[in-house]
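Progress note, sequence design subtask.
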């Protein structure tokens, strides 16, 4: 039995919907904070630091304190905790005179 053009199109649409449903859901609050961390990491690269090194120095404490395995799983109060950790790291880095120009 041959598939009609409509049958093929329906299969394609179902497949695409299944793929969309299986994508991880990332909270908008975490997306915003992640963008802020990204900007900060890029600023640090200008000061001679590696992007991944800076990012991991921020992400690891966040993951440890919140208890998530994957950073993109953060949501709700976990994002609030992550923001506090990020702000603390930025503040301490500036207070300790570690900023290079």
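Output:
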């Amino acid at each position: 039995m041959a598939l009609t053009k409509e049958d093929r199109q329906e299969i394609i649409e179902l497949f695409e919907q299944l793929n969309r449903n299986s994508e991880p859901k990332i909270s908008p609050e975490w997306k915003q904070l992640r963008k802020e961390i990204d900007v900060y990491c890029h600023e640090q690269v200008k000061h001679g630091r590696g992007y991944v090194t800076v990012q991991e120095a921020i992400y690891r404490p966040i993951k440890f304190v919140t208890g998530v395995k994957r950073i993109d799983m953060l949501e709700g109060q976990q994002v609030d905790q992550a923001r506090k950790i990020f702000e603390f790291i930025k503040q301490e880095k500036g207070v300790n005179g570690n900023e290079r120009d």
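The chain has a mean pLDDT of 87. Work on this subtask will continue into the next period as scheduled.
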